[in-house]
Amino acid sequence: MAQHRAGEHRGAVRTAGRVRDLPRLETDRLILRKMRLEDAEAMFAYASDPEVTRYVIWATHRTIEDSRAFLELTVSSYASGEGLDWGIVYKGDEKFIGTCGFVSHSPEHARAEIGYVLSRRYWGRGLAPEAVRALIRFGFERMGLNRIEARCIAGNTVSARVMEKARMTYEGTLREREKIQGKLRDMKMYSILRREYLAARDL
Ligand SMILES: CC(C)(COP(=O)(O)OP(=O)(O)OC[C@H]1O[C@@H](n2cnc3c(N)ncnc32)[C@H](O)[C@@H]1OP(=O)(O)O)[C@@H](O)C(=O)NCCC(=O)NCCS
Q1: Fewer Cβ neighbours under 10 Å: the N or C end of the chain?
Q2: What is the CATH classification number for the domain harbouring 176?
């Protein structure tokens, strides 16, 4: 699978573990950039697909207004310096095809959690692992993290594969931990530590 190469980190300023201006990142096949209000149509195209939203914590978008509302929140989170979510653009066709980012960040514990979603049309090409590896690199090299984690519903075997392909380690299953779409779900926990990232990078 294609490895990501050095991203563009201009503009990323670390202040006590916080990122003040989310930079554009680049991998072999993807651009990770800030989301924009104009992305609503492309977002609605996948966020309204029940196959895509089957295992995510947010509700399937019913109208384009749901996508607009999500993007408005995300854009304002950039302005307040809190937003750590990127839009994913596929270089091959320059389309906005999904999102990825740090869904939670605890600077005091040097820890953050990753989340991701892709349009169904782009599944099965190793694009999510490519994006996740770029986030892992950014998290360790620019945010000063020590631990990056990710969780998925136990039945989401495809998402579990993404974490494995990004060299994250399965730590265990947290039983009935979250109520998602009305049901209490077992959650698989994965993580990668800074020292593991550095050891793999030096191979
Ligand atoms: C999870 C998701 C991001 C995976 O992205 P991806 O770029 O397709 O990931 P990959 O191409 O590396 O494929 C991962 C696995 O998907 C499976 N897969 C392959 N082609 C597939 C296809 N056309 N359709 C569905 N699954 C496929 C394979 O098991 C593959 O593992 P393998 O490479 O070992 O064979 C994507 O499926 C998605 O957006 N799902 C909905 C949102 C979601 O569940 N997000 C995670 C919440 S925790």
Answers
A1: C
A2: 3.40.630.30
Centre of ligand 1 to C-alpha 73, Å, is 27
The 10s digit of each residue's pLDDT in 127-140 is 999 999 999 999 99
Q: What is the pTM of this model?
A: 0.92
Residue 11 lies in a domain: no
What's the gap in Å between 80 CA and the centre of ligand 1? 32
Q: Quick check: is 190 in a domain? A: yes
Q: Which of 141, 132, 138, 140 is nearest to 167 (CA)?
A: 132
What Å distances lie between residue 133 and 5, 45, 50, 129, 189, CA to CA?
Answer: 10, 25, 26, 6, 17
Residue 69 in tokens: 């509302």
pLDDT in tens, 30-81: 999 999 999 999 999 999 999 999 999 999 999 999 999 999 999 999 988 8
Task: Examine residue 6 and state whether it is found in any structural domain, yes or no.
Answer: no
| Ligand 1 atom 23: residue of nearest CA | 124
Nearest Cα to Cα of residue 90 among 117, 122, 67 = 122
User: Does residue 77 lie within any of the structural domains?
Assistant: yes
Q: Would you tell me how many other CB atoms lie within 10 Å of the CB of residue 124? A: 10
> Which of 130, 165, 110, 123 has its CA nearest to residue 25?
130
What's the domain range around 81?
23-201
120 CA distance to ligand 1 centroid (A)? 9
